[in-house]
Amino acid sequence: MDLESTVRALEKRVGELEDRLAIYQLMYTYGPAADSGSAKAAAHLWTADGVYDVADVAAMTGHRELEQMYEGKTHQALIHKGAAHLTASPHVVINGDRAVATCYSFVFAHEDGNYKVWRVSSNRWDFVRESAGWRIKRRTNRLLDGSEQARAILGRAVE
């Protein structure tokens, strides 16, 4: 391999690593934004028409609906008692300006001086690269309650 080919190959690999790191940062920003009550920051992790599909709650579309969910009674009560939204290490596949991540997520809630696991879910995150960087196009969240839907999300990571 000549020097020019080596440099192009390295540039491509570095670009892929930078994309992966940006996606990780985006995913790991979610918890602190949600738990701090930063509704606008949390909502703007999505594209303007992005969807957060939580089967047992609702499907919220766009920044306004997402902000309303974070400002809503259920979310506010949870974070004012103490909560931690955690995203487990994801399996990420990048294809140009699109990417998919599969992972678990956990919500811990402070209750009676202790923390309890409030929610455990499987997640599929669909990302797109916009001019300002990577954003969530769709996040699908399914409770790990034995359902086929929840297992199917996880199964996509190993296909």
Question: Can you characterise this structure?
Answer:
The chain is of the alpha+beta class. It has one domain (3-158): Nuclear Transport Factor 2, Chain: A (Roll). It has helices at 3-36, 39-43, 62-71, 73-81, 148-155; strands at 46-54, 58-61, 83-87, 91-95, 98-111, 114-130, 133-143. Strand 6 and strand 7 (133-143) form a beta hairpin. The longest helix is centred in the N-terminal third of the chain and has 34 residues, at 3-36. It is globular, with a radius of gyration of 17 Å. 19% of the residues are buried. The mean pLDDT is 95.
In brief, what are we looking at here?
The chain is α+β, with helices and mostly antiparallel strands and 159 residues long. The chain has helices at 3-36, 39-43, 62-71, 73-81, 148-155, and strands at 46-54, 58-61, 83-87, 91-95, 98-111, 114-130, 133-143. The model has no long low-confidence stretch (mean pLDDT 95).
